[in-house]
Design brief:
Length: about 425
């Protein structure tokens, strides 16, 4: 089972180079499992036992199955994750011609580690908006092939490189796509038009706009002498999206279950389709009773906010609190912060710990050092927007926000197992 899950994750990561593609990948799996797509612009007709999903901005998705047990009596079981990851995104007017090379200007999305982006085989993917026969349309594109690279400066020309040097995002991160002949110019929108034709058979009248990200073409892989690890891009947080999906699809139908995968977490979630926006509440209000009954359902519900946790790195163990160093392959991590950077309470932590023990899943704890700042997740944002009790958890990883992260190959099975048990749990605290 571990090998099948890990290979499924590897395939999911390969098919999901951007939040748009991740959402499309999730939607495909849901439809194959019998989930019906709903359009936010239409009137909804749902029924007990039904399975549905809805997307917003092509980059966020909420899937739900209405269980046989009424939500008013038994509440909802929600799992939340996010579809976006730190990356380099192409600017609106990106063309650069420098020293006979064609480059593209990029903007850093989220808190990316810059150095790992150098000397990687990069491709480009995302959403393109165009005009066709007088109408505005959009499609997803993915070049797939390695079409760009950001070469390092040789050590001979940067003798201080190994002493640490600040990377200037404006000057040092534009990827090289091609060499230019003397006097030659290239138009990025022409390139997008060619890709649109090659991938979709569409000859657009004009390329109007785009949201495109560079990504590493190297596939994720199981690594280590004993296959102990998974190395790959976008483990934060597509790993949790995938585990949540697997749990939703394999859990029973007694309880009402919700999977929430939203965009823009890496930049604060403040958007129409982010966790700090109205997407989840608007969706639930269309599914649940109104007024007093809606509040009663929410207060009987619980959210598991699943995002990655910092595993204790053997080379940097002093970056962790001595009593809170999560180990890769040691199971899910309950994340705690007294200043509400995580939304975990003793009640919700106790419930999740009990759930792990009942299902023979090892469980760990994380709290940041008292002299260091703490990151955050969609947990506190969703809790404050919806008023739902929340526990923040995640799988331990190394190199978070690198172009290639590392997680434990056993942990995915643990997370999928406990999330499936959560979706099936009879009683919530």
């Amino acid at each position: 089972m571990r090998a099948d899950l890990n290979q499924g994750l590897i395939d999911f990561l390969a098919a999901s180079p951007t939040p748009f593609h991740a959402t499309a990948s999730l939607a495909r799996r849901l439809e194959e499992a019998g989930y019906q797509r709903l359009d936010e612009r239409d009137a909804w007709r749902t029924e007990a036992g039904g399975r549905y999903y809805v997307t917003r901005n092509d980059s966020s998705l909420i899937a739900f199955k209405l269980g046989r047990n009424a939500p008013l009596e038994h509440g909802l079981r929600l799992v939340g994750a996010h579809t976006d990851s730190p990356c380099l995104r192409v600017k609106p007017n990106p063309e650069l011609a420098r020293q006979g090379y064609w480059q593209l200007g990029v903007e850093v999305y989220g808190g990316a580690l810059f150095a790992p982006w150098f000397d990687r085989d990069l491709s480009l993917a995302g959403r393109v908006t165009f005009r066709l026969a007088g109408k505005v349309e959009s499609r997803l594109i993915d070049f797939r092939a390695p079409i760009a690279v950001i070469p390092n400066l040789a050590i001979h020309l940067n003798r201080e490189a190994n002493q640490g040097w600040p990377i200037n995002a404006q000057n040092e991160l534009p990827p090289i796509l091609a060499q230019l002949a003397a006097g030659e110019t290239r138009d990025f929108r022409d390139l997008l038009g060619e890709q649109l034709q090659n991938e979709h058979g569409i000859i657009a009248d004009a390329i109007l706009d785009y949201e495109l990200s560079f990504y590493d073409t190297q596939r994720a892989a199981v690594v280590g002498l004993g296959g102990e690890f998974i190395a790959g891009a976008r483990l934060d947080n597509l790993l949790s999206c995938y585990a949540g999906l697997e749990a939703l699809l394999t859990s029973g139908d007694e309880q009402s279950a919700v999977l929430v995968c939203t965009d823009h977490e890496e930049v604060g979630s403040c958007s129409a389709c982010g966790a700090d926006g109205p997407f989840l509440e608007q969706t639930l209000r269309r599914l649940l009773p109104e007024g007093d009954a809606f509040v009663r359902v929410i207060q009987r519900s619980l959210l598991v906010s699943a995002d990655n946790a910092h595993g204790v790195h053997p080379n940097y163990a002093d970056k962790h609190d001595g009593n809170h160093g999560p180990q890769l392959n040691g199971g899910p991590v309950i994340k705690v912060n007294s200043n509400q950077r995580y939304a975990t309470s003793s009640e919700t932590a106790g419930f999740f710990r009990h759930l792990c023990l009942e299902n023979e899943v090892p469980v760990q704890s994380f709290v940041t050092r008292s002299d260091m700042g703490c990151g955050s997740t969609i947990g506190p944002l969703t809790a404050s927007q919806l008023g739902v009790r929340t526990v923040d958890i995640g799988l331990p990883t190394f190199a978070m926000h690198s172009i290639r992260e590392l997680a434990g190959s056993q942990d995915l099975r643990y997370l999928a197992k406990v999330l499936s048990a959560f979706y099936e749990s009879i009683e919530l605290p």
